[in-house]
Amino acid sequence: MSSWVSRATANHNAQLITTAVVSGVVVGGAILGLQQARRLYRVADLKASIPDDGDPTRLTEFGAASGAFAPSNEDKRSMALAARARKGDFDDDLILEQLNRNRVFLTDDGLGKLRSAFVIIVGCGGVGSHATAALARSGVSKMRLIDFDQVTLSSLNRHAVATLADVGTPKVHCLRRRLEQITPWVHFDCRNELFGEKSAAGQLGDLNGQQPDFVIDAIDNIDSKVALLNYCAKHKLKVISSMGAGCKSDPTKILIGDISTSTDDRLSKSTRRKLRAHGVKDGIPVVFSTEKAGPGKAELLPLPEEEFAKGKVGELGVLPDFRVRILPVLGTMPAIFGLVVANHAILEITGYPHEYLPSKARDKMYDSILGLLQAAEERLAKTQGAPSQGIKIGISKDDVGYLVEEVYLGRSIVSGLFNRLALVRWNRPNTSIIDTQTPGQMNTLLSMKDLVCMTKEEAQKHEKEVLKGTKHPEELYDSHVVELAERKMAECGRYEQLRWELDG
Fold it and tell me: Which residues cross the membrane (predicted)?
């Protein structure tokens, strides 16, 4: 090294270069050292600004600093009592006295089933909190609570037990902490987590070897709701789902029925469609409202223009796929929904007899519409010169129900009438409707995206003038009807594509 320096300094130019390099290294080191010193000073100032309140390395069960959400003396006493009660240090006669009204209603056998049941509640907001509180007060002694969210000030208009002191704490722990003051013997398994398809097996799994006796779905996110209900349906778990309580105000319109019959609710509609794509079309009881929107009633609030200006709307939510608009909620309605789902769970677990007001059965109507569609396809095949005997259409009764109820909302696309309905092709086929690619079968090339809903009389006229005649739909109907038909058929195309992808 010394020999290299001697040779380098022997030349004047080399001396200058060496001096420049050494100076650059010194200056660079000084700058980096100064920046590092400034960072250290800033960190020290920041640490000094934090109040010295307890051990800063300790975190609470809420994931906060040890001094945050400190329990009150009453909370401490309740927590201590609950800890003893869960270990059996609580007089069973006192528990039975507290549950006495339920005991005489359900009998000892029914109450015993309830006390030994394990119930999972997914979603602990307005609906889920009231359901949880009702189940705990009624005798359920093992509950798993799943919710990723925290209590906010806006939660207090509908949450069952949250107080101002709970704002900022996870909803699952808020419920546990408050309900321990009412039913200290209840074992709460709190999961401050987002429910999802990938985590469903663990979140809906057993508790100390006991499989769940009932699952309550109080989720307001469609993808999570569909994942939960699909998992329960495929794994034969008893479940009841709460549909949307937002924008509802009439308690007399709240019903319990099969998911296939729930109407007039956007959340229910989207859930049904996605479940159908998974092959689940019925068999899930739901609580829903038949209340219809109307002038002067609350609606989903539009997103302000300034929010659009901030960038992609999908990036404004707390989590991906979660809504960014405010859903108006009258605080009483989630409470009613929550109490109804809890009531259903109690009756199911205890075996108490119950029979709900049935929804209007429309299976006969679907059969009739399917028969009319079959006859129309045979007539069209005959018009094209193809054999019409024994042809089959690729539309089932379930598809008819989906088209009539979900897509066209039980109304004619032309007149808006809701009686004497039929399904008919919208456009005249340019080629033969018979599938010639499948030897030995006479299937028609018909899919849901080809069909629209009309009254029988309108369908007969449409068949005569469009399917067998020379007119186009644009010549018969105004632009509103044409636009609506195209939008609905495109919607059916997306549904069929989704179903095909899932089946594939």
Answer: 12-34
